[in-house]
Design goal:
The chain has 7 helices and 10 strands. The chain is α/β, with parallel strands linked by helices and 262 residues long. The protein has a domain of 173 residues: P-loop containing nucleotide triphosphate hydrolases (Rossmann fold, 3-Layer(aba) Sandwich). The strands form 2 sheets. It has a 6-stranded mixed beta sheet, with helices on both faces. A 4-stranded antiparallel beta sheet has the order 2-1-4-5. A hairpin with a 5-residue loop joins strand 1 and strand 2. Helix 2 runs parallel beside helix 4, helix 4 runs parallel beside helix 5 and helix 6 crosses helix 7. Bound molecules: adenosine-5'-diphosphate (ADP) and magnesium ion (MG).
């Protein structure tokens, strides 16, 4: 499903009436099936942008447009995943995944096999009947991925889903996510602090400036598919991460050294 932000801006009002400009003039167009990584410093409005695209918050300027229609309410056919996994501790892993259907008032039985299949894909088949509190952080994130994907959403919004995990678990989950999304053909917006995973997963990496968040670069990641662990060994991979690191360090601020004569 195609996705667009058109001159999108957001100003928050604090309780005392002070204005916080979080986003400014965001123009972004995402093609069906594209995987777009979003990088930017803390507080630059990444989560706000994702929430507006998913219909969970409202823009104060411009609009989000999904499938040709302005977004005015939470998108029911989107999958959303946050840094905190938000699993329900009193349900088994399988029931947490099937919550997608319960929430929508649909029967869960026809989807039980698919839930198990997804758990197997992320190496968690034995956890179907276990409770989230019995699992490590990495295992919980795996269950959360399954929950975000089980209803086969054409749109997937991921907000730093692997931020709290150790490096190796994160790389393994990156590989699994690449395989799962390539297979489903979903359009994905992936917010991350990790330059490596932005390149590893993305067809594009969009870099935002410090608040108010603006887009300062939109880099096409021309690496081959399918993306497996070998991708990280390519010299092009390193070239992309170096380029993005530089863009982020610069942060969109004017370079104050310019114009200073030695
Ligand atoms: N509900 C809110 N009310 C007021 N300010 C907010 C609210 N949500 C976010 N902000 C502010 O907007 C800015 C962007 O926040 P956020 O989108 O969470 O940034 P990021 O995800 O890039 O770290 C921050 O300065 C944050 O404090
Ligand atoms: Mg955030």
């Amino acid at each position: 499903m195609p996705l667009r932000a058109e001159g999108l801006g957001k100003t928050f009002r604090s309780a005392r009436g002070a204005a916080v400009r979080a986003l400014d003039g965001i123009d972004l167009s995402i093609a069906p099936g594209e995987f777009v990584s979003i990088l930017g410093p803390s507080g630059c409005g990444k989560s706000t942008l994702l929430a507006i695209l998913a219909g969970l918050d409202k823009a104060t300027q411009g609009a989000a447009v999904v499938g040709g229609k302005p977004v005015t309410a939470p998108l029911v056919d989107a999958g959303v995943m946050f840094q905190r996994d938000l699993l329900l501790d009193w349900h088994t892993c399988e029931d947490n995944i099937l919550m997608q259907f319960k929430m929508r008032g649909q029967p869960t039985a026809p989807h039980r096999d698919r839930a198990r299949e997804l758990l197997a894909l992320v190496g968690m088949e034995s956890a179907a009947q276990r409770y989230p509190r019995e699992l490590s952080g990495g295992m919980r994130q795996r269950v959360a991925i399954c929950r975000a994907l089980v209803h086969e959403p054409p749109l997937l919004f991921l907000d730093e889903p692997f931020g709290a995990l150790d490096a190796l678990t994160r790389e393994n989950l990156n590989t699994e996510l690449a395989a799962l999304t390539a297979h489903s053909g979903a359009t994905v917006v992936f917010v991350t602090h990790g330059i490596d995973e932005a390149v590893f997963l993305g067809d594009r990496a969009v870099v935002m400036s410090a608040r108010p968040g603006r887009i300062i670069a939109d880099v096409r990641i021309d690496l081959p598919h399918p993306r497996g662990a070998h991708i990280r060994e390519l010299p092009e991979f390193t070239a992309y991460t170096a380029r993005l690191r530089k863009l982020l360090a610069h942060d969109g601020r004017p370079d104050h050294r310019e114009g200073v004569r030695p």
